[in-house]
Records
---
Amino acid sequence: MLLSLVGLYVFSARQQVQDSAWAEADAEAKLVALSVQARTQHVDDILVHTRDSFERYGPGLTEKDALLKSKSSSADVPYLAILIVNTAGDAILSLPSNDFQADFSKIAEEAGTHADDGPFAASVATLLGHFFVRAVPLRFADGTYAGAVVGVLDPAWLKNTLTHLAAPDDLVMTIKQADAVIARNFRTESAALVQGADALMPGHRTQSIPSLDAVLEVQLRRDVLAQKTNQALEFLVTVVLLAISCLTLGAIWLQRAVSQTIESVLKAELANRSALIKSRFLANMSHELRTPMTGVLGAVDLLMDTQPTAEQKNFLDLIRRSGQHLMGILNDVLDISRIDAYAVTLDVRPTLVLDVIEDVVQMLMPRAHLQGVALYAQIELADTTRVDADAFRLTQILTNLIGNAVKFTPQGHVQVKASLKKIDDADILEIRVTDTGIGIEQEQLAHLFQHFYQADTTASRRFGGSGLGLVISKELAELMGGQISVTSRLRQGSCFTLSLPVKNIQSHAAQSMDEAALSPIQQPVFLCFQDDVLRQSMQTHLDWLGITWQDCAEAQWKDVTSELVIFDRSTYQKFCELFQCHSPCVLIDTDLSSHHKEGALHSVGQVHNITVLNEPVRRKDIAALIRTRGRSPDALAHLESKDPVQSSNLAPLQHMKILVAEDNVVTQKILQAFMRSLGCDASFVLNGRAAIDAMCVETFDLVLMDCHMPEVDGYTATQEIRQMEASDPLRRRTPILALTAATTDADVQRCLDAGMDEVCSKPISRQDLEAKLLQWQSRAPTRDEAEATQALFAQDT
């Protein structure tokens, strides 16, 4: 089959070469015929000019001879002889001189009977040899026929013409007259080849040459045509071999590409499966760890209410802090698993950046004070500045960065600086966290953001931590389109810089802290500080509040007179007697050994008319001092941080009827104790089926539903309860709160899809439980209102 295809293609290629050669032969024949015609026309012009000259000069031969020489020189038309013959056919003049042994009478007779006086082709039979003859009639002045002007062309002229045209080698051109070969384009040494029986291809092409009464015949040379066919086949073979080589290389490349693609897909699939398995494993481990932690931390909360001794209280506090530390590590591991599985989604919305940063700083202030580290915040942002950002993730990043700075700073200070910058037409929120801590070696910086990496392996034992906080912060920052960079020097401190691109920046006037209440201060606020970092922080607050300030040098402190003086503890200790006579005064306290109470603002009383604020200070605290001129610490009472849930506010919960579906016995006992201490009327069931049955016979104000229970899980139970409520118009919708150790985004969404109203993660403290119950009790109608609504609906129906 393959040989048949090859033979068929060879035959087709040979036929295509022949067809192409014949087409070329037709074109060449036309070109040669036109060229011969053109050269014949030139001869005719010479004959006409000679006739005109002879008729003009008459029988005078000298001038005619000169004229004839000038018009028929051998350089102009080689192989041409011009004769003038009379009516009898006698040659009375020839140029060049030549005795033609021929009878010109026939030509003279033909010229006499010619229809017009134009050139014509004379009969070759009247001449000896194979010559071409062109003639034009000759007449006297009175119009009487006088003879003819005859041009005799040697056949060598035609051969010369064919040679100069340089026809292709595969074409044999022959000019014939009366079947006699007059000229060929072949050289003498090729004549044998032409005469051979197999030298030429069968068939020919012809083209007439009327001016010479001849025919141009074109034939193909077999050898040259075979050579062209072989060349075509060689070219074809080369192309085929090249195509095969390209196809082979392409197939090899494609095979490698496909193999690499398959390998990449398999690796990605394995990675996805690995990430999914890891996420599921971590979610299960989270569930298994969080459930017993509910018992541990819940028992600690309950034991704290039993009036333990000081030593017992210290032990309980140690258990609580250890449990909270374990929960923090568990949350970090879960965050890493979510990021690796691309399961983290951002909740971008307008965010008050100042509040976010100050909240984090205030949250970490007790840890810093306990460790003896000063914590400063210099935020160069208006309090009304809002940017589109994920406040929760931003808080998580800052908590890690600032918390690490505090943790790895045995002494000294930690400073947080924040500002908005314009870089390459993009708005960048830049937050710098600088500390004077232990620092990091340069060769360790490249590995700082690796999972579970500690720059110093002894640091984890000395300072604690899992080595995941920076990894989580970096990947969250990149997820938000930003980056975290670090510079550090060993034993001199570190500087971590968070750069986040932000959009839709919204800001108002600088004086935005209840501007109407900030009555003008006639004199500048005097700042008396020995702590340069604290001075810069205070200056930034006053600038953004639009308050004029004046920095007092130490030599000016004794002469300070102003409506408000702000100073630090170092200045107060050095000039204690000075500040006893000035009113009002504000002390920004960084003497960390004197602090025993957490909170952003701690007024320690009015000693010598001095109000004391703990650093870091919120900008709204400074605004409150401006409003009250620092006259009384009672004026700042509304700024004290308060627990949203007070344990004394239990009366509303004593009327709350709650159904708790929980299969873990330890968790049940803890929740029973919580409910008793909160005064709630709680009923407990062990699975979802029992919860459904309880909802059929009783009405509850709220349901706490565990998700993973035997027989019927919490998701199915919730769905059936919602179906019961939908089918009974008299039944009000009961809030159902998921109480689960599964806290991934997918788990939370599954709870909401099942019909639950909110998700409470285990372990849950008594304070958090109390807050949730009060929150949902305030949303729900009272039992009397619900019964009245049902009675009214029954009357209408």
---
Amino acid sequence: MNFEWLESKTYTDDLESICKSISKDATLAQTEAQTADAFQRQLYYHIRLKTGVEINFNQEQPISGGLIHEFGSLKKRSSGKGRLDAVVNDLIIEYKKHSKLKNKKDQEIARNQVKDYLNAMFINEKIKYNAILTDGVKISYFEFIGDHVESTAFKYLEAEDIDRIIKAILTHENKKMIPENILRDFAILDQNVQSITKELAISLYHTLTNCPTEKTNMLYCEWERLMHLSFDDHGKGNDINKRREDLARILDTDNIFDSDKEYKALFTLQTTYSIIVKLIACRAIEKLEYSEIKNYSDLTTLNNLGLQQFFEKLEDGYVHRIMNIGNLLEGDFFSWYSEKEQWEKNPDISKCIKKIIIRVDEYSTFSLGLDLKTFDIFKDLYMSIIPKTVRHSMGEYFTPGWLANYVVSEGLQLQENKNWKALDPCCGSGTFIIALINKIIENNKPKNADDSYILSEEQKARIKEKILDSVYGIDINPLSVLSARVSYYLVLRQLGEVENVEIPIYLGDSAITPTQEIIDGIPCYSYYIENAKKPFHVVLPVRFVKLKEFGQIMTTLQNAVRIGNEETLLLTIADYLTDNEKNAKKLMKSIKLMVKDLIELHRSNWDGIWIRIATNFMYIARLDKFDFIVGNPPWVKWEHLPSTYASKIKKLCNIRHIFTTKGQFGGTQLNICALIANVSATNWLKDSGVLAFLMPDSIMSQDSYEEFRHFYLDYENNERLYLQKIDKWEKPLKPFTCENIVVSQDFNTYYYTKKETDYKKGINVRTISRTKAITGSVNIFV
């Protein structure tokens, strides 16, 4: 289908013309049939002329099944049948004569009639139709929000309404981009049943194990180093065997018998998941503007070489940088498959990815817009692709959306600043990020707005800007960062075009952040990036890192690295330094050493990700203070951390007043979530800020947490946080499960501020279960 009309310069003028013609004819209409004719004649003519699409307005469609209507001053009466004025594709259009919608009472009767129609259609056909009610002059929209039909207030028909109706008609065959549809199409629900996702995973695993290139081995090696931070190999033998059996069944192999094959299997599944997420992001953006590719649908026409070239550019971030969305998709560990040499070693990759492309092409981000659909869109897909035995080993417990919404609401009650700015330092796939965005939308809608549609474009733009200014996230897992960024983007997309932005979700470690030091009198950020080949030290002036165009500059540096010449890279950096910085001998010595190391990594074919990793860590360094820090940090005991990582934390973090001082207990029982809480509050919490974390119940009782319970941010200056209240979750509302098994460890929500609390008087503890909520006081320091 040729939809170039929708992007043409004449489209806006056509909409105005159609709208005026419909309103003029409808005003003169003497019957509902004439109103319908005024509407349909204009739409049919222009859609057929401009797109070649034949549309059929099915008139007077019968419907039966428990309809309830109001008739004037009479009470509600039930009827067994009714008629719809028109059904075009999945859009129901109900027409009224102009004089029949003049007063609010008649409008309400007509709206209830349409709601009855939609509910009856859902009961009979299990289809959630959209609908419009119009007299050709005014219009109201209807859409299912969950299982309930919601509608907008009547408004005068405008060109934007004609645009919405045309797009609703033309995208009727497309699937909505919602979790249940994505799960249905891309899940690996049965490890023994073939699916397009499983086909891709098997092809990638075959490539990784049999014919990896040098670059593939490099990316896998660095990914494996990172995964050792979260993958718990302390499980029982039976658990490890079960994990490997599950991976082997998905990948149709019987040789996953050691840790190397197990890691490669997991790397394969995470790569498979990342490809699907990236293609969904491309579908949402739609206008790709790459070579001969203009729209997502054009990808289905590419040959093998064209597809490889597109994915290589996609993984390099080019496709999205042209939209000035600098970090939506950027080169990561999972880009290995797109390298030309690797792609050509297994032609099956192209065939499998083509199937995913075609399936994603069935989706559309269009909706009537009655509701801003904010949800963690990829969580269920991830859980279907990564076996539960693997997720359990990684300690992955996904926070339910309802719980995240609850914690955000409760925490913000303690925050007096209504223009708050929030951070989730361990954001995962974005559950708390979405909850924070929900709160922004809720707080910034006009008081009379029940839905997003009646927001003006100016109001939507303000909300979009507010979200970008207010909601930030960090995570150490690149797959989580990818999921959270795309989910964030999909929300913004509902508020209009998304251009010239950085999605404020960053890859980094909230436990170990860049430090600030003074070099030759110049404030600088410093961070040591480890890798298997040649670790290097990133040192950059604070002023440089805080430049608005910092992300674009770092992309320029990445391009300079590829040239492979130290002088070229050094001159490129120097272009952005002040004279004072260039004359600082010690600083320039550090920068030259960094340049030397980066070029050496490039020449050793151990390159492609380091500039982007450095960029993300520098973004974290330049973050301002926040009014609200919220989240569900990982629950990993210190004794289970890799020794090198634990040593690095001890070296870089002030942990003297986090570990217990009692020798017989030691620090091995300390959970890293306590460390992250302390480091996050020290680095990023305002004096008036609130911290709300989900953490183990044992924090309140175990001796190993004795020092943490004092929550010193600065011991010498007696600066600390005080616990304000606790939400204690009891059966059957324990929120964390691994599949259907409730996690045995007890968890609470802890709320901290700097407001001094007299613990001898106790604090509020609310015990929450299905049937009751008890508020009491306890003394936490006996």
---
Amino acid sequence: MKRFLYSPGGKAALLVLQQVLVGVMVLSVCFGTLMLMKGGDSLFAGQGKYEQSAQFDDAFMSGVYDTIWLTDYKYNFETDGVYNPKKIVDIEDYALNGRITGEVTRSIGYYLEDLVNWGRQGKENESYSVKEVATDDWAGDSGVTASVTADDSSVSVQAGQEYYRFDESYAPVGDVSLEEYLEQHPDVNPSKMYGYLSNAIDNAYNGVEQYKWNLAKYQEDKSNFRYAIVNRSTGKAYSNLDGIQSAADAEEAIKSIRGLGAYIYLDSASLNFEKSPKSSIDSFNKAINQAVNGWSYMDSKVTMENIYRNLNQLSALAGGDYTIAAGIDTTYPIHDGFYDAKIEYEQTRPWFQALMYGGLISLFLYIVVLVALTVVSGRRTDDEEIHLSSVDNIPTEFVLACIAALGILVVFSAVMVLNTLYSVKSLVIISAIVVSILADLLLMAGYLCLVRKIKGGIFWKKSILGWFFGTLYGGAKGIRSNVKVLVSFLSFLLIDFLLALFMIQARSRLTLLLFGLLALGFNAFVGALLLREEGQRSEIMEGIQKIRDGDLEYKLKTESLKDDNLKIAQAVNNIGEGLQNAVADSMKNERLKTDLITNVSHDIKTPLTSIINYVDLLKREHIQDEKISGYIRILDEKSQRLKQLTEDLVEASKVSSGNITLNFEHLNFVELINQTTAEFTEKFEAKDLELIENVPNAAAVVRADGRRLYRVLDNLFNNVAKYALPHTRVYVDLAEEDGYIRFSIKNISEHPLNIRADELTERFIRGDVSRSTEGSGLGLSIAKNLTELQNGHFEIYLDGDLFRVTISFVKTEESHEEQRQEAKHEEE
């Protein structure tokens, strides 16, 4: 698992999984928000009953709000329980007290239907027709403003100022017009009267429209909502239940309402308040406030005194002795808005909870994946080092700024999505998912960049602040060690400043010209010095590059150099001499080692040959003693192994030093492989190794030394015979790829390969760490060096206990002459 997570594929899989989780979370948030808009916080409730939800409470209180308004409308617009369009409206009493008594008690009255028609006409035409009248010098009250719209412009009518009046479409009761009434009553303020009329028109029209709407909405046969409001002071009752006109009629209705599954009951005399299901009275107080005072007024204290104070302002409840009962039949026999809301709630809540849990699980898994990406960031499968990319060289502050900007953009986008979610659902959700995934990918790129910076120890080094403070520190160190440069630079600035100052202060053109020429000459002199310095530095750099390229005898010419450049050039020359001496010593030591190995091997070979010969003579004596025969057999094995080791050592020394002669010719690689496999058949059978060959029949020609190439194959096959796990398969493959002939042999090692692949080709290194098997540890080293001497490529690959060697040579075509001679040789 660790290797997979460290691999590019594993990291990509984690990123893909992370983006899937982001999509699930965004989907959960969007749909969950939509459901919360409909169901409210009640979707979180444990019991899940609609009647105990905040959504139900809001709908219930909305019904209370509507019926309180409806009760007041009934008081104003009905006579004996029936809508009365001929009911007289005293416009001053209606404007000041919100009350229609059916009589003219203060000033002037209009029929209700005339005001409604007048308001509908104005609504339809979107303006009132007006005309200008003369200014009168009233000294009455000011401050009452009647806003009237005429020809798309708003005007105000105030006392003591020029004002406008309506063209009267309808006459007041008992008068020809309001104008005539004002002429007959000069003490009445016209501004106020026109304001009262304007308010009466608007309130009558809007009130009657709302009255009719709520009356139809809450009819007994069309709604599960029931209400009964009784004013004991007047003996009147208001209800949507049939047959209730008086307080006596309402007693049974109130009792039945209090038996419903959800109800409120309020008695002003006993201060008794009941609410079922039980919940805070906040929502009820809110409904009362909105019904009485409108949306702009809210009591800060939720008390019964506040509730009664607000209710007492209603015309229908005048006198303060009343009972209010409202409820919902929670069996929902009628399919109305309450029934539809219950069905929607019961269908929505399980999906909301599933989305909520899915979002939380996705968030948890996202955090797990984020931790995993943090751990594997910068890691690879082949080592434990931290690997940085070119992106990690971006300044740290820029990465942090990008992450912060993306975070702000994500928050801003989330707010926009939530604001537009309810209106354009599918398009907004799809856009939110796509944008969230792209934003997360960019955020993860920045975050993982910071993680690699921290792991690699370059978080501060690759920052702008780090560069700035590092420059300051380096400059401070340079000041201490390069006082001469600092003094020179400050002197240059001072002289230039003084020359510029003299030029500014010059009072004549001649003086200005003189100091200008001095400044030009001084700067030209400094420029020439800098060019000379740069030319000398270029010569030094050219010499360093030649020495780097291997010309250790190159010497820089120091005659024309001065100061620091002279010291640097002398140091470079000394480095060249030192490198030359080091190379000479290294070559001398290598020759000495080679000579030592060769001489010692020859010195060992002479007595070793005698030992082998005498052991051979002893073997021919047919000794019957088994114990002595065993000794002779051991002597024979060890002497032969020592002989092989000596030969390998000499050959390894020659190969590594290049002290061998190669005879290049065109060889058929297929024939060499077949010959080698035939020779190792017995050794493979002894360890029960099954050889699987994938070698073509066609010739695969390479240019190499036949004897040396055979030694390479012999070493590789011999390595397999020694170290392969018994009872396993050995695979031999030969193929042509991209103009190369590639040979590979692979097997399963008998011993654990707790070693790097490149170490196996070093001298005396063996895969058998205990060194309990045959072998000198030189076979693979010799095979690699011989392959590379013949312009081939040698590669070892390890994967657990899998061992594979691949050697490759450039494919070569035989010439016609060689093909002809080869055919002739085959015929002979």
